[in-house]
Amino acid sequence: MLPVVGYTEKVPQLTIDPVEVSKAFFVELEALASPSNLGTYTVTLKDGMQASIPCYQVSNYTIWGATAMILSEFNEIISPIRQ
After folding, report:
1. Alpha helices in 1-83 (DSSP H)
2. Cβ atoms 40, 53 nearer than 8 A
3. Quick one: which of 66, 61, 70 has its CA closest to 39?
4. Considering only CA atoms, which of 73, 74, 55 is closest in space to residue 65?
5. Is 56 in contact with 71 (CB distance < 8 Å)?
6. Contact criterion met (CB below 8 Å) for 54 and 40
7. DSSP three-state, residue 44
8. What pLDDT is attached to residue 47?
9. Do 43 and 51 form a contact (C-beta atoms < 8 A)?
10. What pLDDT is attached to residue 39?
11. What are phi and psi of 56, to 5 degrees?
């Protein structure tokens, strides 16, 4: 996986791999920075145990797993720029 961050003045047309991604959508940077959009997501593990993991809850979507970890690191990198 290679996360890429870019900027464009036009909304790009996205093509997703349905094996890897169920849906693509856009999120404002401010939404990712807002503590009110941080939450937890409960997953059921293979052994039946449940685990609560950090996630973003934005625009009626729950962003969790590797994507949430990448976004969290991205937020840390750009947080000094926001100040």
Report:
1. 29-33, 65-82
2. yes
3. 61
4. 55
5. yes
6. yes
7. strand
8. 95
9. yes
10. 93
11. -105, 140
Predicted pLDDT of residue 59: 86
Count of beta carbons in the 10 Å neighbourhood of residue 17: 6
Question: How many CB atoms neighbour CB 57 within 10 A?
Answer: 16
The confidence score (pLDDT) of residue 2 equals 67
Predicted local confidence at residue 83, as pLDDT: 60
Instruction: Express each pLDDT in 11-64 by its tens digit.
Output: 888 888 999 888 888 888 888 889 999 999 999 999 999 999 999 999 889 998
Amino acid letter, residue 66:
A
Neighbours of 39 (CB within 10 A): 15
| Residue keyed to tokens 């999120």 | 27
